[in-house]
Specification:
Elements lengths: L3 H11 L2 H8 L2 E5 L3 H13 L3 E5 L23 H12 L4 E5 L8 H5 L4 E4 L4 H14 L3 E5 L12 E6 L2 E5 L13 H20 L2
Parallel strand pairs: 1-2, 1-4, 2-3, 4-5, 5-7
Antiparallel strand pairs: 6-7
Helix pairs in contact: 1-2, 3-4, 3-7
Amino acid sequence: MVSEAEIEAVINARFSEPVYKTLKGASVGVAGLGGLGSHIAVALARCGIGRLVIADFDTVELTNINRQFYNLSHMGRRKTDVMKEEISKINPYVCVEVSDCVICESNAGAVFKSCDVVIEAFDKPESKAELVNALLSQTQTTVVASSGMAGFYDGNEIVTKKISNRFYLCGDGKHGIENGTGLTAPRVMICAGHCALAAVRIMLTK
């Protein structure tokens, strides 16, 4: 098994020791482990984020495979269990805390209260808004949310915007599944990259 020191040495060589130490000391929450959240969690683990709090209530289904991180061998298993297992294969020294529950206004603050940044990765607009409002009002965390990533539209339309000191928004702001447009792996992964990078940049500029 690769040692923690070996992993640290590789990341230090790519980033620099101050960057690595900052990211290792960071705590990031990911609310929802579907197409967006599953790729976000993996990206954060590869960046060396030291603690991840991941939350989802669902299991892997065949309909997930076209855009989410999972594969056919994961079908029927809880997404939180699979994600924790897959992250351990990337970096077994990342602390992964799991919440197998529906995240809503009443429990969001408690689940993510100790996170420096929380990334919203839900599907439904009303659920997104409820989570963002709950986190901004109940915690001191910075929130990264998403809006608009559906279809095969231009990937360059997906951007990251700073809405306020504690709120960032990633996406194109217009192409959602509610318009009858399906979700596709390329655009979902572009948006996931924006969300993960936003969280990393927030931690490095604190």
